[in-house]
Amino acid sequence: MGRYLGSACALCRREGTKLYLKGDRCFSNKCAVEKRPFPPGPHGQSGQFRRKTSDFATQLREKQKARRIYGVFERQFRVYFQEASKTSGVTGAALLQFLERRFDNVVYRLGFAASRKQARQLVLHGHFLVNGKPINVASYLLKAGDVLTLTEESSKNAYFQTVAKDMAKKSVAGWLSLDGQNLSASVVSLPTRQQIDTQLKEQLIVEYYSR
User: In total, how many domains does the chain have?
Assistant: First the structure.
């Protein structure tokens, strides 16, 4: 499977909103969306070829926005949607729940990384244990009751020692529990829609795949 090698800021500009793909830079005055609030490309600023947005285009953009926020490719995103559609609850909320439960997203939500991309790298490099077992798969879905800790070697790493100073006073979403001092965490429960602060209109994604 390929991976996107282009500019992360270009993705935010294409969607017309901050996707928070570059950590602290997104909160600074260097943010490309604030400096250049128009789509990338030669015609982005002039809007010469812009047309009235159709319902399909609106649905597509919302789906693309979700994919880019969570760093998921199309095939895997479609699998998440198919699994969400099989649940007894609301499909859109179930889809976001699957995305939130991804290992890389949880690592990001807990504050171990400034962005999901960085969190994915930490997971792939084998820094974490889940219930005492090493897991280095970014798409691994955590469940209620799972306990996340650092490996013994990683707990002595200078990066995590620095992170610990900020995590000791960090608050996390209600479905997660964090022990910042000991750099460990647990999944208290599966996230509800109210506990997911991602600004997405998931019903548009449902409509896109239900065409």
Answer: 1
